[in-house]
TrEMBL record:
PANTHER family: SUPERFAMILY HYDROLASE, PUTATIVE (AFU_ORTHOLOGUE AFUA_2G16580)-RELATED. SUPFAM superfamilies: alpha/beta-Hydrolases. Belongs to the polyketide transferase af380 family. This is YcjY protein. It comes from Symbiodinium necroappetens.
Length: 316
């Protein structure tokens, strides 16, 4: 890529991963100068997001703080293709890690990029933590509302988990035999539901239903009406991979300095606190009482608090 074609703000880019071109947005600081060297961030988004959601929020914020930020659509998601013979909406954990490694490689080819850091939100936290275990090109990592310790969150009800696995297994067999995609609603939310219907359906199951809908729902701030290439529908065998938590299992192997930001009141707080308890690296922890898990996705006060903290941490 010719650096002279890049300008301050958002730039559409592509980079190779699994032999195909993934679609990305490269956010550059104001008064960007290709002859200078900048600290760069590879971003990782929540499940099941595309680059027009969290990356489109955090990218401009981190660029405004002087960083180069790369947000991208994972293999089979958003504007990135699936592999030949495979289906869209196939966000598989192991591939997310490898896509992230390739994103780091891409940033490493840019002459104006110096140190590279990782910033993940929700599932993106697990992706960044996992990728960093063996990719020491990533010099520091930060995780916001991160789902790193997924075992404490996803495996508590074994009967429920085994039902999820059985459904994923059946979906995989169906797709293998029929050659057609089998799309489901992994978080129980489709693209047509009203907020009232979804919250009622999740009563006693998901205490985050209201804030989840406000972001992902049909009428949400970053739902399918607001982000045309996003859908809440996902490939049916997703559970066979999303139930793995590599970052948690290898937390004590992470050597890079890390920052974990989360809400004390969030249902998901245990995913951060359990992860932190396993770390042996140089580590900082920032917990808030006033924000929820999803607040960090888009609410101005929460986003400012997290991005200010991340910028300070990466600049140390």
């Amino acid at each position: 890529m010719a650096s002279k074609s890049l300008t301050a703000g958002k730039n559409q880019v592509t980079f190779r991963s699994f032999g195909v071109d993934l679609a990305g947005d490269l956010y550059l600081p104001e008064a960007f100068d290709a002859t200078k060297v900048y600290k760069a961030i590879v971003g990782a988004s929540p499940f099941p997001q595309v680059k027009d959601q969290i990356p489109a929020t955090y990218g401009p914020e981190m660029a405004a703080r002087g960083f180069v930020y790369l947000g991208f659509d994972y293999l089979g998601m958003g504007d990135s293709p699936a592999l030949p013979g495979e289906f869209k909406q196939s966000r598989y954990m192991f591939r997310l890690i490898e896509n992230t490694w390739d994103a780091v490689s891409f940033l490493g080819t840019l002459p104006f990029v110096g140190e590279i850091y990782g910033l993940g939100v929700c599932q993106g936290g697990s992706i960044i933590a996992s990728a960093a275990v063996t990719d020491h090109r990533i010099k520091k990592i930060a995780m916001v509302s991160g789902m790193m310790a997924a075992d404490a969150f996803q495996w508590t009800n074994r009967d429920q988990v085994n039902q999820q696995i059985a459904a994923a297994n059946a979906s995989k067999q169906k797709m293998y035999e029929g050659g057609e995609p089998d799309y489901v609603t992994p978080i129980g939310l489709n693209d047509e539901q009203s907020r009232e219907d979804f919250v009622a359906a999740m009563a006693g199951i998901n205490p985050m239903a209201g804030e989840t809908y406000d972001y992902y729902g049909r009428d949400g701030v970053k739902g399918p009406m607001a982000v045309p290439n996003f859908t809440n529908m996902h490939i049916g065998d997703q559970g066979m991979q999303s139930l793995f938590s590599i970052g948690e299992a290898y937390a004590d192997k992470i050597v890079q300095p890390s920052l974990t930001i989360y809400s004390k009141a969030a249902w998901t707080a245990v995913c951060s606190t359990e992860f932190v308890s396993k770390l042996t690296n140089e580590h900082e922890e920032l917990a808030f009482d006033e924000f929820s898990h999803v607040d960090f996705y888009y609410k101005p006060e929460a986003v400012k608090a997290s991005t200010d903290a991340v910028a300070e941490f990466f600049n140390k």
